[in-house]
Amino acid sequence: MQKIQNYINGKFADPQSGTYIDNYNPATGQVYSLIPDSDERDVEAAVQAAKKAFPAWSGMRSEDRSALLLRLSELIGKHLERFAVAESIDNGKPVWLARTVDIPRAVSNFHFYATAALHLSTETHAMGDVAINYTLRTPIGIAGCISPWNLPLYLFSWKIAPALASGNCVVAKPSEITPMTAYMLSEMAVEAGIPPGVLNIVHGYGTKVGKAIVAHPEIQAISFTGGTKTGEEISRIAAPMFKKLSLELGGKNPNIIFADCDFEKAVKTTVRSSFANQGEICLCGSRIFIERPLYEPFKEAFLAEVKKLKTGDPLDDGNWLGAIVSRPHMEKILHYIDLARHEGGKILSGGNRIQAGGIHAEGYFIEPTVIEGLPYDCRTNQEEIFGPVVTLQPFDTEEEVLRYANSTSYGLAATLWTQHLTRAHRVAARLHNGIVWVNCWLLRDLRTPFGGMKASGVGREGGFEALHFFTEEKNICIKL
Ligand code: NDP
Protein backbone atom coordinates (compact mmCIF):
# COMPACT_ATOMS: atom_id res chain seq x y z
CA MET A 1 0.00 0.00 0.00
CA GLN A 2 1.32 3.45 -0.91
CA LYS A 3 2.80 5.40 1.98
CA ILE A 4 2.72 9.18 1.72
CA GLN A 5 5.69 10.96 3.27
CA ASN A 6 6.35 14.39 4.69
CA TYR A 7 8.47 16.76 2.63
CA ILE A 8 10.89 18.60 4.88
CA ASN A 9 14.13 20.36 3.93
CA GLY A 10 13.90 19.03 0.38
CA LYS A 11 13.73 15.41 1.55
CA PHE A 12 10.98 12.86 2.00
CA ALA A 13 10.65 11.81 5.61
CA ASP A 14 8.58 9.47 7.77
CA PRO A 15 6.74 11.09 10.66
CA GLN A 16 8.70 11.18 13.91
CA SER A 17 5.86 9.27 15.60
CA GLY A 18 6.43 6.38 13.18
CA THR A 19 2.66 5.99 12.87
CA TYR A 20 0.32 6.39 9.93
CA ILE A 21 -3.33 7.25 9.36
CA ASP A 22 -5.58 5.32 6.97
CA ASN A 23 -6.50 7.16 3.78
CA TYR A 24 -9.85 6.13 2.31
CA ASN A 25 -11.05 6.09 -1.26
CA PRO A 26 -14.54 7.56 -0.82
CA ALA A 27 -15.90 5.84 -3.91
CA THR A 28 -15.14 2.39 -2.49
CA GLY A 29 -15.04 3.09 1.24
CA GLN A 30 -11.71 1.19 1.37
CA VAL A 31 -8.30 2.23 2.70
CA TYR A 32 -5.93 2.69 -0.21
CA SER A 33 -2.92 4.56 1.20
CA LEU A 34 -1.32 5.68 4.44
CA ILE A 35 -0.71 9.22 5.67
CA PRO A 36 1.98 10.28 8.17
CA ASP A 37 0.52 10.93 11.61
CA SER A 38 2.87 13.85 12.18
CA ASP A 39 3.08 16.05 15.24
CA GLU A 40 4.82 19.15 16.59
CA ARG A 41 8.26 17.53 16.18
CA ASP A 42 7.79 17.30 12.41
CA VAL A 43 6.50 20.87 12.34
CA GLU A 44 9.56 21.98 14.30
CA ALA A 45 11.86 20.27 11.78
CA ALA A 46 9.98 22.01 8.95
CA VAL A 47 10.26 25.40 10.65
CA GLN A 48 14.01 24.96 11.17
CA ALA A 49 14.43 24.02 7.50
CA ALA A 50 12.37 27.02 6.40
CA LYS A 51 14.37 29.32 8.66
CA LYS A 52 17.63 28.11 7.15
CA ALA A 53 16.31 28.53 3.59
CA PHE A 54 14.75 31.95 4.11
CA PRO A 55 17.79 34.29 3.68
CA ALA A 56 18.72 32.88 0.26
CA TRP A 57 15.11 32.54 -0.99
CA SER A 58 14.02 36.01 0.12
CA GLY A 59 17.26 37.53 -1.13
CA MET A 60 16.90 35.98 -4.60
CA ARG A 61 15.88 38.24 -7.51
CA SER A 62 12.13 37.91 -8.04
CA GLU A 63 12.80 36.88 -11.67
CA ASP A 64 14.74 33.86 -10.44
CA ARG A 65 12.05 32.85 -7.95
CA SER A 66 9.51 33.34 -10.69
CA ALA A 67 11.40 31.02 -13.05
CA LEU A 68 11.39 28.23 -10.45
CA LEU A 69 7.66 28.61 -9.78
CA LEU A 70 6.91 28.67 -13.51
CA ARG A 71 8.80 25.41 -13.78
CA LEU A 72 6.65 23.97 -10.99
CA SER A 73 3.51 25.13 -12.79
CA GLU A 74 4.69 23.50 -16.03
CA LEU A 75 5.44 20.21 -14.28
CA ILE A 76 1.94 20.01 -12.79
CA GLY A 77 0.57 20.72 -16.27
CA LYS A 78 2.79 18.04 -17.77
CA HIS A 79 1.41 15.47 -15.30
CA LEU A 80 -2.15 16.84 -15.38
CA GLU A 81 -3.88 13.52 -16.01
CA ARG A 82 -1.95 11.76 -13.23
CA PHE A 83 -2.85 14.57 -10.82
CA ALA A 84 -6.51 14.53 -11.94
CA VAL A 85 -6.89 10.78 -11.39
CA ALA A 86 -5.17 11.00 -7.99
CA GLU A 87 -7.42 13.89 -6.93
CA SER A 88 -10.50 12.00 -8.02
CA ILE A 89 -9.54 8.84 -6.12
CA ASP A 90 -8.58 10.77 -2.99
CA ASN A 91 -11.55 13.13 -2.85
CA GLY A 92 -14.33 11.31 -4.67
CA LYS A 93 -14.80 14.14 -7.18
CA PRO A 94 -15.46 13.21 -10.81
CA VAL A 95 -12.22 12.90 -12.72
CA TRP A 96 -13.61 15.15 -15.49
CA LEU A 97 -13.93 17.94 -12.92
CA ALA A 98 -10.42 17.44 -11.57
CA ARG A 99 -9.15 17.38 -15.17
CA THR A 100 -10.96 20.55 -16.26
CA VAL A 101 -11.08 22.62 -13.07
CA ASP A 102 -8.96 21.54 -10.08
CA ILE A 103 -5.65 20.71 -11.68
CA PRO A 104 -5.68 23.38 -14.43
CA ARG A 105 -6.40 25.89 -11.68
CA ALA A 106 -3.40 24.68 -9.64
CA VAL A 107 -1.28 25.16 -12.78
CA SER A 108 -2.73 28.69 -13.14
CA ASN A 109 -2.21 29.55 -9.48
CA PHE A 110 1.54 28.98 -9.74
CA HIS A 111 1.72 30.64 -13.14
CA PHE A 112 -0.32 33.64 -12.01
CA TYR A 113 1.70 34.35 -8.85
CA ALA A 114 5.06 33.57 -10.46
CA THR A 115 4.32 36.40 -12.89
CA ALA A 116 2.26 38.67 -10.58
CA ALA A 117 5.16 38.96 -8.15
CA LEU A 118 7.24 40.50 -10.94
CA HIS A 119 4.84 43.45 -10.93
CA LEU A 120 4.76 44.02 -7.19
CA SER A 121 5.79 47.62 -6.59
CA THR A 122 5.78 50.11 -3.77
CA GLU A 123 5.06 53.83 -3.48
CA THR A 124 6.97 56.97 -2.68
CA HIS A 125 5.47 60.01 -0.98
CA ALA A 126 7.36 63.23 -1.53
CA MET A 127 6.94 66.01 1.06
CA GLY A 128 7.88 68.92 -1.20
CA ASP A 129 11.53 69.77 -0.59
CA VAL A 130 11.35 68.69 3.08
CA ALA A 131 11.58 64.91 2.85
CA ILE A 132 10.83 61.87 0.78
CA ASN A 133 9.14 58.70 2.01
CA TYR A 134 9.48 55.39 0.31
CA THR A 135 7.90 52.08 1.21
CA LEU A 136 9.68 48.77 1.34
CA ARG A 137 7.66 45.61 1.05
CA THR A 138 9.48 42.57 2.39
CA PRO A 139 8.52 38.93 2.85
CA ILE A 140 7.27 38.04 6.31
CA GLY A 141 9.52 35.01 6.87
CA ILE A 142 7.79 31.67 7.38
CA ALA A 143 4.16 31.35 6.34
CA GLY A 144 1.82 28.61 7.55
CA CYS A 145 -0.67 27.44 4.91
CA ILE A 146 -3.54 25.15 5.94
CA SER A 147 -6.15 23.99 3.45
CA PRO A 148 -9.32 21.86 3.34
CA TRP A 149 -10.34 18.72 1.47
CA ASN A 150 -12.90 19.97 -1.04
CA LEU A 151 -10.56 21.41 -3.71
CA PRO A 152 -7.32 19.90 -2.45
CA LEU A 153 -4.55 21.01 -4.82
CA TYR A 154 -6.51 24.02 -6.10
CA LEU A 155 -6.75 25.63 -2.64
CA PHE A 156 -3.37 24.40 -1.40
CA SER A 157 -1.61 26.06 -4.34
CA TRP A 158 -3.78 29.20 -4.03
CA LYS A 159 -1.98 29.87 -0.73
CA ILE A 160 1.46 28.42 -1.35
CA ALA A 161 2.00 30.19 -4.69
CA PRO A 162 1.68 33.80 -3.44
CA ALA A 163 3.56 32.98 -0.23
CA LEU A 164 6.54 31.61 -2.18
CA ALA A 165 6.40 34.15 -4.99
CA SER A 166 6.69 37.01 -2.53
CA GLY A 167 9.83 35.48 -0.99
CA ASN A 168 8.53 33.57 2.03
CA CYS A 169 9.32 30.02 3.01
CA VAL A 170 6.32 27.83 3.71
CA VAL A 171 5.23 25.15 6.15
CA ALA A 172 2.01 23.74 4.72
CA LYS A 173 -0.56 21.18 5.74
CA PRO A 174 -3.16 19.75 3.38
CA SER A 175 -6.29 18.15 4.79
CA GLU A 176 -5.50 14.74 6.20
CA ILE A 177 -8.59 13.53 4.30
CA THR A 178 -7.11 14.43 0.89
CA PRO A 179 -3.29 14.48 1.07
CA MET A 180 -2.34 12.76 -2.20
CA THR A 181 -1.89 15.65 -4.63
CA ALA A 182 -0.01 17.68 -1.99
CA TYR A 183 2.39 14.74 -1.77
CA MET A 184 2.71 14.69 -5.55
CA LEU A 185 3.35 18.45 -5.45
CA SER A 186 6.35 17.83 -3.20
CA GLU A 187 7.73 15.44 -5.84
CA MET A 188 7.30 18.17 -8.45
CA ALA A 189 9.02 20.71 -6.17
CA VAL A 190 12.10 18.49 -6.13
CA GLU A 191 12.02 18.13 -9.93
CA ALA A 192 11.51 21.88 -10.40
CA GLY A 193 14.61 22.60 -8.31
CA ILE A 194 12.88 24.53 -5.54
CA PRO A 195 15.69 24.85 -2.95
CA PRO A 196 15.45 22.60 0.13
CA GLY A 197 13.50 24.13 3.03
CA VAL A 198 11.64 26.68 0.89
CA LEU A 199 8.49 24.54 0.73
CA ASN A 200 7.79 22.05 3.50
CA ILE A 201 4.67 19.87 3.57
CA VAL A 202 3.73 18.17 6.83
CA HIS A 203 0.85 15.70 6.73
CA GLY A 204 -1.46 14.73 9.56
CA TYR A 205 -4.37 15.78 11.70
CA GLY A 206 -5.43 19.38 12.07
CA THR A 207 -5.55 19.04 15.80
CA LYS A 208 -1.87 18.02 15.88
CA VAL A 209 -0.05 19.39 12.82
CA GLY A 210 -2.42 22.30 12.09
CA LYS A 211 -2.42 23.39 15.68
CA ALA A 212 1.38 23.15 15.94
CA ILE A 213 1.74 25.35 12.82
CA VAL A 214 -0.67 27.94 14.19
CA ALA A 215 1.00 27.99 17.62
CA HIS A 216 4.61 28.04 16.42
CA PRO A 217 6.19 31.37 17.44
CA GLU A 218 8.43 31.50 14.36
CA ILE A 219 5.56 31.20 11.87
CA GLN A 220 4.44 34.79 11.53
CA ALA A 221 1.53 34.49 9.09
CA ILE A 222 -1.26 31.93 8.83
CA SER A 223 -3.34 31.52 5.71
CA PHE A 224 -6.22 29.17 6.44
CA THR A 225 -9.17 27.87 4.44
CA GLY A 226 -11.68 25.64 6.16
CA GLY A 227 -14.64 25.61 8.49
CA THR A 228 -15.76 28.59 10.55
CA LYS A 229 -15.38 26.71 13.87
CA THR A 230 -11.76 25.82 13.02
CA GLY A 231 -11.20 29.45 11.99
CA GLU A 232 -12.37 30.54 15.45
CA GLU A 233 -9.96 28.14 17.15
CA ILE A 234 -7.08 29.32 15.00
CA SER A 235 -7.86 32.97 15.78
CA ARG A 236 -7.87 32.23 19.50
CA ILE A 237 -4.31 30.93 19.30
CA ALA A 238 -2.86 33.22 16.65
CA ALA A 239 -4.39 36.59 17.57
CA PRO A 240 -2.68 36.96 20.98
CA MET A 241 0.62 36.23 19.20
CA PHE A 242 -0.16 39.10 16.75
CA LYS A 243 0.24 36.88 13.71
CA LYS A 244 -1.06 37.97 10.37
CA LEU A 245 -4.21 35.94 9.66
CA SER A 246 -6.10 35.27 6.46
CA LEU A 247 -9.24 33.19 7.04
CA GLU A 248 -11.44 31.81 4.25
CA LEU A 249 -14.30 30.07 6.00
CA GLY A 250 -17.73 28.55 5.44
CA GLY A 251 -20.71 29.76 3.45
CA LYS A 252 -24.45 29.42 2.95
CA ASN A 253 -24.76 31.13 -0.35
CA PRO A 254 -27.99 32.52 -1.81
CA ASN A 255 -29.01 32.21 -5.47
CA ILE A 256 -31.53 34.90 -6.35
CA ILE A 257 -33.62 34.31 -9.46
CA PHE A 258 -35.77 37.19 -10.70
CA ALA A 259 -38.66 36.51 -13.06
CA ASP A 260 -36.99 38.48 -15.88
CA CYS A 261 -33.87 36.27 -15.96
CA ASP A 262 -32.62 34.41 -19.00
CA PHE A 263 -34.58 31.31 -17.98
CA GLU A 264 -32.58 28.60 -19.66
CA LYS A 265 -29.21 29.94 -18.56
CA ALA A 266 -30.46 30.50 -15.01
CA VAL A 267 -31.75 26.93 -14.72
CA LYS A 268 -28.66 25.28 -16.22
CA THR A 269 -26.16 27.35 -14.26
CA THR A 270 -28.10 26.96 -11.01
CA VAL A 271 -27.97 23.18 -11.39
CA ARG A 272 -24.19 23.52 -11.73
CA SER A 273 -23.83 25.96 -8.83
CA SER A 274 -25.92 23.64 -6.64
CA PHE A 275 -24.31 20.28 -7.34
CA ALA A 276 -20.83 20.74 -8.82
CA ASN A 277 -18.31 18.70 -6.83
CA GLN A 278 -21.30 17.15 -4.95
CA GLY A 279 -22.07 20.62 -3.57
CA GLU A 280 -18.73 20.58 -1.76
CA ILE A 281 -17.51 23.93 -3.03
CA CYS A 282 -17.58 26.84 -0.63
CA LEU A 283 -19.08 28.90 -3.50
CA CYS A 284 -21.98 26.57 -4.27
CA GLY A 285 -25.39 28.17 -3.81
CA SER A 286 -27.55 26.19 -1.40
CA ARG A 287 -30.54 28.51 -0.93
CA ILE A 288 -32.39 29.22 -4.16
CA PHE A 289 -34.84 32.13 -3.96
CA ILE A 290 -37.17 32.45 -6.95
CA GLU A 291 -39.47 35.38 -7.72
CA ARG A 292 -43.02 34.06 -7.29
CA PRO A 293 -44.30 34.31 -10.90
CA LEU A 294 -41.37 32.13 -12.00
CA TYR A 295 -41.41 29.72 -9.05
CA GLU A 296 -43.37 26.82 -10.55
CA PRO A 297 -41.82 26.91 -14.06
CA PHE A 298 -38.33 27.23 -12.57
CA LYS A 299 -38.94 24.37 -10.14
CA GLU A 300 -40.20 22.14 -12.92
CA ALA A 301 -37.28 22.85 -15.25
CA PHE A 302 -34.74 22.62 -12.43
CA LEU A 303 -36.04 19.22 -11.30
CA ALA A 304 -36.04 17.95 -14.88
CA GLU A 305 -32.34 18.90 -15.18
CA VAL A 306 -31.50 17.36 -11.80
CA LYS A 307 -33.09 14.07 -12.88
CA LYS A 308 -30.59 13.89 -15.74
CA LEU A 309 -27.56 14.06 -13.38
CA LYS A 310 -25.81 10.75 -12.99
CA THR A 311 -24.04 9.94 -9.72
CA GLY A 312 -21.49 7.15 -9.38
CA ASP A 313 -17.92 6.02 -9.99
CA PRO A 314 -15.87 9.26 -10.10
CA LEU A 315 -13.49 7.72 -12.63
CA ASP A 316 -16.33 7.16 -15.11
CA ASP A 317 -16.71 10.25 -17.31
CA GLY A 318 -20.41 9.47 -17.69
CA ASN A 319 -21.07 10.48 -14.07
CA TRP A 320 -21.64 14.14 -13.25
CA LEU A 321 -21.45 13.64 -9.50
CA GLY A 322 -19.00 11.45 -7.65
CA ALA A 323 -18.69 10.38 -4.02
CA ILE A 324 -18.94 12.45 -0.85
CA VAL A 325 -15.47 12.94 0.61
CA SER A 326 -15.76 10.80 3.77
CA ARG A 327 -18.15 8.66 5.78
CA PRO A 328 -18.51 11.24 8.61
CA HIS A 329 -19.27 13.96 6.05
CA MET A 330 -21.81 11.74 4.28
CA GLU A 331 -23.47 11.07 7.63
CA LYS A 332 -23.54 14.79 8.40
CA ILE A 333 -25.28 15.52 5.09
CA LEU A 334 -27.83 12.73 5.60
CA HIS A 335 -28.47 14.07 9.08
CA TYR A 336 -29.26 17.49 7.59
CA ILE A 337 -31.66 15.92 5.08
CA ASP A 338 -33.47 14.29 8.03
CA LEU A 339 -33.48 17.62 9.82
CA ALA A 340 -35.05 19.25 6.75
CA ARG A 341 -37.83 16.62 6.80
CA HIS A 342 -38.30 17.17 10.50
CA GLU A 343 -38.54 20.94 9.96
CA GLY A 344 -41.39 20.36 7.50
CA GLY A 345 -39.48 20.40 4.23
CA LYS A 346 -40.81 18.49 1.24
CA ILE A 347 -38.16 16.47 -0.60
CA LEU A 348 -38.80 17.07 -4.29
CA SER A 349 -35.88 15.01 -5.53
CA GLY A 350 -33.22 12.76 -4.00
CA GLY A 351 -32.88 12.67 -0.24
CA ASN A 352 -31.11 9.32 0.09
CA ARG A 353 -27.79 7.58 0.14
CA ILE A 354 -27.14 5.69 -3.10
CA GLN A 355 -26.25 2.06 -2.56
CA ALA A 356 -24.01 1.41 -5.54
CA GLY A 357 -22.96 -2.06 -6.59
CA GLY A 358 -19.67 -3.95 -7.05
CA ILE A 359 -16.52 -2.30 -5.73
CA HIS A 360 -18.58 0.80 -4.97
CA ALA A 361 -20.96 -0.97 -2.58
CA GLU A 362 -19.34 0.77 0.42
CA GLY A 363 -18.90 4.11 -1.38
CA TYR A 364 -20.28 7.36 -0.02
CA PHE A 365 -22.82 8.47 -2.62
CA ILE A 366 -25.81 10.76 -2.03
CA GLU A 367 -28.54 11.69 -4.52
CA PRO A 368 -28.70 15.35 -5.52
CA THR A 369 -31.41 16.61 -3.22
CA VAL A 370 -33.94 19.41 -3.72
CA ILE A 371 -36.22 20.55 -0.89
CA GLU A 372 -39.06 23.09 -0.71
CA GLY A 373 -41.45 24.42 1.87
CA LEU A 374 -38.98 25.56 4.50
CA PRO A 375 -38.85 29.03 6.08
CA TYR A 376 -35.71 31.09 5.44
CA ASP A 377 -34.72 31.10 9.10
CA CYS A 378 -34.90 27.36 9.91
CA ARG A 379 -31.67 25.48 10.65
CA THR A 380 -31.60 23.80 7.23
CA ASN A 381 -31.53 27.27 5.66
CA GLN A 382 -29.09 28.80 8.13
CA GLU A 383 -26.38 26.18 8.68
CA GLU A 384 -23.75 25.08 6.20
CA ILE A 385 -24.46 21.56 4.89
CA PHE A 386 -21.68 21.47 2.26
CA GLY A 387 -23.23 18.70 0.19
CA PRO A 388 -25.62 18.10 -2.74
CA VAL A 389 -28.61 19.64 -0.96
CA VAL A 390 -30.49 22.80 -1.95
CA THR A 391 -33.74 24.44 -0.90
CA LEU A 392 -36.19 26.34 -3.10
CA GLN A 393 -38.20 29.27 -1.81
CA PRO A 394 -40.43 31.86 -3.50
CA PHE A 395 -40.25 35.63 -2.83
CA ASP A 396 -42.33 38.65 -3.83
CA THR A 397 -40.16 41.74 -3.41
CA GLU A 398 -36.53 42.81 -3.49
CA GLU A 399 -36.68 43.82 0.18
CA GLU A 400 -37.96 40.39 1.12
CA VAL A 401 -35.31 38.46 -0.80
CA LEU A 402 -32.53 40.66 0.55
CA ARG A 403 -33.78 39.92 4.07
CA TYR A 404 -33.71 36.17 3.33
CA ALA A 405 -30.35 36.28 1.55
CA ASN A 406 -28.62 38.32 4.25
CA SER A 407 -30.17 36.42 7.17
CA THR A 408 -27.36 33.90 7.80
CA SER A 409 -24.19 34.41 9.79
CA TYR A 410 -22.23 33.73 6.58
CA GLY A 411 -21.34 36.11 3.75
CA LEU A 412 -19.19 34.38 1.14
CA ALA A 413 -20.82 34.43 -2.30
CA ALA A 414 -24.16 35.13 -3.96
CA THR A 415 -25.58 34.62 -7.42
CA LEU A 416 -28.09 36.98 -8.96
CA TRP A 417 -30.16 36.33 -12.09
CA THR A 418 -31.90 39.27 -13.79
CA GLN A 419 -31.88 41.11 -17.12
CA HIS A 420 -32.71 44.36 -15.35
CA LEU A 421 -29.46 46.32 -15.24
CA THR A 422 -30.25 48.77 -12.48
CA ARG A 423 -31.77 46.08 -10.30
CA ALA A 424 -28.63 43.98 -10.73
CA HIS A 425 -26.47 46.87 -9.46
CA ARG A 426 -28.92 47.77 -6.69
CA VAL A 427 -29.32 44.26 -5.29
CA ALA A 428 -25.63 43.35 -5.70
CA ALA A 429 -24.62 46.39 -3.67
CA ARG A 430 -26.96 45.44 -0.82
CA LEU A 431 -25.95 41.79 -0.52
CA HIS A 432 -23.68 41.02 2.46
CA ASN A 433 -21.32 38.82 0.48
CA GLY A 434 -17.69 39.16 -0.56
CA ILE A 435 -18.43 37.89 -4.08
CA VAL A 436 -21.56 38.47 -6.19
CA TRP A 437 -21.99 36.81 -9.58
CA VAL A 438 -24.60 38.36 -11.87
CA ASN A 439 -25.96 36.00 -14.56
CA CYS A 440 -23.06 33.59 -14.09
CA TRP A 441 -21.32 31.48 -11.47
CA LEU A 442 -17.71 30.66 -10.66
CA LEU A 443 -16.42 32.95 -13.37
CA ARG A 444 -13.03 33.71 -11.85
CA ASP A 445 -10.43 36.32 -12.66
CA LEU A 446 -7.47 35.60 -10.40
CA ARG A 447 -6.76 39.32 -10.03
CA THR A 448 -10.02 39.99 -8.17
CA PRO A 449 -10.35 40.05 -4.36
CA PHE A 450 -11.62 36.70 -3.14
CA GLY A 451 -13.16 36.08 0.27
CA GLY A 452 -16.13 36.49 2.53
CA MET A 453 -17.78 38.79 5.04
CA LYS A 454 -19.13 37.99 8.52
CA ALA A 455 -18.49 34.38 9.60
CA SER A 456 -17.14 33.56 6.11
CA GLY A 457 -13.77 35.00 6.88
CA VAL A 458 -11.27 37.75 7.40
CA GLY A 459 -9.15 39.26 4.65
CA ARG A 460 -9.08 38.57 0.94
CA GLU A 461 -7.05 36.29 -1.28
CA GLY A 462 -6.38 36.77 -4.99
CA GLY A 463 -4.40 39.27 -7.04
CA PHE A 464 -2.11 41.66 -5.20
CA GLU A 465 -4.20 41.18 -2.02
CA ALA A 466 -2.44 37.87 -1.36
CA LEU A 467 1.02 39.25 -2.19
CA HIS A 468 0.34 42.11 0.20
CA PHE A 469 -0.80 39.68 2.90
CA PHE A 470 2.45 37.74 2.68
CA THR A 471 4.62 40.87 2.89
CA GLU A 472 5.27 43.52 5.54
CA GLU A 473 5.35 47.21 4.65
CA LYS A 474 7.90 49.58 6.05
CA ASN A 475 7.95 53.32 5.44
CA ILE A 476 11.32 55.02 5.28
CA CYS A 477 11.36 58.80 5.65
CA ILE A 478 14.46 60.67 4.49
CA LYS A 479 14.89 64.32 5.40
CA LEU A 480 16.25 66.23 2.45
P1 NDP B 1 -11.80 22.09 8.54
O1 NDP B 1 -11.89 23.42 9.18
O2 NDP B 1 -12.22 20.91 9.32
O3 NDP B 1 -10.30 21.79 8.10
C1 NDP B 1 -9.53 22.64 7.29
C2 NDP B 1 -8.06 22.37 7.54
O4 NDP B 1 -7.72 22.77 8.86
C3 NDP B 1 -7.68 20.89 7.45
O5 NDP B 1 -6.38 20.79 6.92
C4 NDP B 1 -7.75 20.46 8.89
O6 NDP B 1 -7.03 19.29 9.14
C5 NDP B 1 -7.15 21.68 9.57
N1 NDP B 1 -7.48 21.83 10.99
C6 NDP B 1 -8.49 21.24 11.69
N2 NDP B 1 -8.45 21.63 12.99
C7 NDP B 1 -7.40 22.49 13.10
C8 NDP B 1 -6.85 23.24 14.19
N3 NDP B 1 -7.36 23.19 15.41
N4 NDP B 1 -5.79 24.04 13.94
C9 NDP B 1 -5.27 24.12 12.70
N5 NDP B 1 -5.73 23.41 11.64
C10 NDP B 1 -6.79 22.62 11.84
O7 NDP B 1 -12.56 22.21 7.17
P2 NDP B 1 -12.86 21.05 6.13
O8 NDP B 1 -11.58 20.41 5.71
O9 NDP B 1 -13.95 20.21 6.69
O10 NDP B 1 -13.37 21.89 4.87
C11 NDP B 1 -14.68 22.28 4.69
C12 NDP B 1 -14.89 23.70 5.12
O11 NDP B 1 -14.03 24.57 4.41
C13 NDP B 1 -16.29 24.19 4.83
O12 NDP B 1 -16.79 24.90 5.94
C14 NDP B 1 -16.10 25.12 3.65
O13 NDP B 1 -17.08 26.10 3.53
C15 NDP B 1 -14.76 25.70 3.94
N6 NDP B 1 -14.17 26.25 2.72
C16 NDP B 1 -14.08 27.60 2.58
C17 NDP B 1 -13.58 28.16 1.41
C18 NDP B 1 -13.43 29.65 1.25
O14 NDP B 1 -12.73 30.04 0.33
N7 NDP B 1 -14.04 30.47 2.05
C19 NDP B 1 -13.17 27.29 0.30
C20 NDP B 1 -13.31 25.90 0.56
C21 NDP B 1 -13.80 25.40 1.74
P3 NDP B 1 -7.83 17.88 9.19
O15 NDP B 1 -8.29 17.63 7.81
O16 NDP B 1 -6.85 16.91 9.65
O17 NDP B 1 -8.97 18.07 10.16
Strand order of the largest sheet: 15-18-19-14-13-21-22
How far is the N terminus from the C terminus?
68 Å
CATH homologous superfamily label of the largest domain: Aldehyde Dehydrogenase, Chain A, domain 1
Shape, please?
Answer: globular
Identify the CATH class of the largest domain: Alpha Beta
Uncertain runs are none
- Structural class label: alpha/beta
Count of individual domains: 2
Tell me the major beta sheet: 7 strands, mixed
Counted by DSSP, the helix tally is: 15
Task: Say how many strands there are.
Answer: 25
Radius of gyration: 23 Å
Mean of residue pLDDT values: 98
Strand content bin: 15-25%
CATH topology of the largest domain: Aldehyde Dehydrogenase, Chain A, domain 1
Oligomer: single chain
